[in-house]
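Q: For a teaching handout, I want to show students what a protein-ligand complex looks like in token form. Below are the inputs, and the small molecule is calcium ion. Please produce the holo structure.
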Amino acid sequence: MSHILIVEDELKLARLQADYLQNAGFGTDCLSNGLEVLPWLKANHTDLILLDLMLPGRDGLDICRELRSFSAVPIIMVTARIEEIDRLLGLELGADDYICKPFSPREMVARVKAVLRRLQTQTVDAAVGALKLKLDPHSFRVSAEGREAELTLVEFQLLQVLYQQPGRIFSRSKLMDLIYQDQRIVSDRTIDSHIKKLRKKLADILPGQELVHSVYGAGYRYDPQDKVGD
Ligand code: CA
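A: Here is the structure, written as tokens, with calcium ion included.
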């Protein structure tokens, strides 16, 4: 049975959330003050947090930020304003999904299940694909299984960004943001051409393995398990 931590200061809503989640087979605990969240998480286990944004004591943003410095537990952020979601996305807090109030409890349960399912798939992939790359930021070398390749600075940075978050899709423009100080000097095609060279070098040290995948219309992601073209 998976456990969900509900952080919500509107007690009626918290009770409703708990009822629906329990009916769906989850165990739950509820906290209503922001200051209680991190201490609770350090002492207890949960599989997912439904985290309200506006809380007494400490707000959800602040909690999310600090939490991500020591835990990857899935977070669904709950906000009272739909306009807020764009701003939250821009902050890259590391939340896994966002729900806006008022929400239907059924929708909430569906989102919880979807996030858990997505993460379980990723965990299985990561466990099966135990392939570890060694990235040396001083020499821009990547090595695996006793072979190594020398990368350019840009290739190295691209690999580093993708490798650190396996399964996550990065758009070309996001990659450009992360890598180039001044975006005006590069185009989407530049990223494609660096990725192409990076893939070739990775294929030289790990023949037959596709690590950096292009996702049609979206961008790129690192995934040691996925089949080509998935
Ligand atoms: Ca609130």
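A: Two things your students might notice: The helical segments are 11-23, 37-43, 60-68, 82-91, 105-128, 153-164, 172-179, 188-205. The chain has two domains: 3-120, 124-222.
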